[in-house]
TrEMBL record:
<keyword id="KW-0812">Transmembrane</keyword>
<dbReference type="Pfam" id="PF04277">
    <property type="entry name" value="OAD_gamma"/>
</dbReference>
<keyword id="KW-1003">Cell membrane</keyword>
<keyword id="KW-0472">Membrane</keyword>
<dbReference type="GO" id="GO:0005886">
    <property type="term" value="C:plasma membrane"/>
</dbReference>
<keyword id="KW-1133">Transmembrane helix</keyword>
<dbReference type="GO" id="GO:0015081">
    <property type="term" value="F:sodium ion transmembrane transporter activity"/>
</dbReference>
<dbReference type="InterPro" id="IPR005899">
    <property type="entry name" value="Na_pump_deCOase"/>
</dbReference>
<feature type="transmembrane region" description="Helical">
    <location>
        <begin position="12"/>
        <end position="37"/>
    </location>
</feature>
<dbReference type="GO" id="GO:0036376">
    <property type="term" value="P:sodium ion export across plasma membrane"/>
</dbReference>
<protein>
    <submittedName>
        <fullName>Sodium pump decarboxylases, gamma subunit</fullName>
    </submittedName>
</protein>
């Protein structure tokens, strides 16, 4: 057997780190090349000229009055109904609007139980 080239651990570390980083840079280049020539990427659609006038915005459907607890203003009901309508649901899907029950001790216990599992 032949003698090792060096027994200095710092030189061995520098050689190993150089090899590792060169391989990582080569992998990065390969990934960029694959990303550039990716056949599964959707083709860019040809750019069309902008329309002359923006399309008119459809008027929102009238919101049916949902059962509301006392203390909730009509503005809040309208905002909640608009948010529900913007998600694609109809106004009839809102059945009730009520404030969230705030019981911090109960919620703290539930959170502790869920974090155990």
């Amino acid at each position: 057997m032949s003698q090792p080239v060096t027994t200095n651990p710092l030189i061995i570390m520098l050689i190993n780190m150089t090899v590792v980083f060169l391989v990582l840079m080569a992998l990065g280049v390969v990934i960029n090349i694959i990303h550039y020539i990716d056949p599964t990427k959707p083709k860019a659609a040809p750019k069309e000229e902008a329309p002359a006038a923006p399309a008119p915005v459809a008027e929102p459907e009238p919101v049916a009055a949902a059962p509301v607890e006392e203390g909730i203003s009509p503005e809040v009901v309208a905002v909640i109904a608009a948010a529900v309508a913007s998600m694609g649901y109809g106004a009839d899907s809102v059945r009730a609007i009520r404030p969230l029950e705030r019981n911090n001790w109960k919620n703290s216990g539930r959170q502790a139980i869920q974090s155990r599992g």
